[in-house]
Amino acid sequence: MESDSILPTQSEPAQEKASEKVSSPAVTPAAVTANSAGARVEVSAQTITRMMGIASTTDLKLLEGRLDLLTSKVSSMALKLDRVLTMLGSVPTPSDIGRLEIQLGSLKSMLREALESVNSSRGSSQAESPKAADEQSRKLVEGIRSSSES
After folding, report:
1. Torsion angle of the four alpha carbons 72, 78, 81, 83, in this order, in degrees rounded to the nearest 10
2. pLDDT digits (tens, 9 = 90+) for 91-108
3. Which region holds residue 53: left if phi is over 0, alpha if psi is between -120 and 50, else beta?
4. Rounded to whole angstroms, how far apart are CA atoms 96 and 116?
5. Domain count within the chain
6. Are 75 and 106 in the same domain?
7. Cβ contact 132:117 at 8 Å
8. How far apart are the C-alpha atoms of 63 and 104, rounded to whole Å?
9. What tens digit of pLDDT does each residue of 109-139 get?
């Protein structure tokens, strides 16, 4: 093979005509194509891969580093979230607070009844005081049972 070009070669007069057409002010697209087809431009493989959108090894290493950083941040956040959830597990719920309020209310009413019975027993005779003490202790025991059941 005489030439590396795929295009058919032109004779010398045809080449001169083509060069005249290129240098003339009215340039036709066919003349430009014919003239530029003979010129070869070398393009590096890196440029071709960039134009195709293929990632290079440095791009992949950078992406891998960023993914590792993101993974470590996510695992750190998960660890902190676990700590918060364990702390929130020990916080009393509204139902716990409601039960506590009920128990305090029943304790308050038992104390009020005990004070009333003590005041009334002082005014009564000495013979009635052992019965009143027994009644008071019975009421106290019943109040404690009812508050512990609810």
Report:
1. -80
2. 888 888 888 899 999 999
3. left
4. 30
5. 3
6. no
7. yes
8. 61
9. 999 888 888 887 776 655 556 677 788 788 8
Cβ contacts of 114 within 8 Å, gap of 6 or more: 136, 139, 140
Instruction: Give me the domain span that covers residue 22.
Output: 12-41
Amino acid identity at 21:
K
* Separation of alpha carbons 65 and 54, rounded Å: 18
pLDDT 10s digits, 22-70: 444 454 555 445 555 567 888 888 888 888 888 888 889 999 999 999 9
User: What is the DSSP secondary-structure string of 27-49?
Assistant: --HHHHHHHHHS------HHHHH
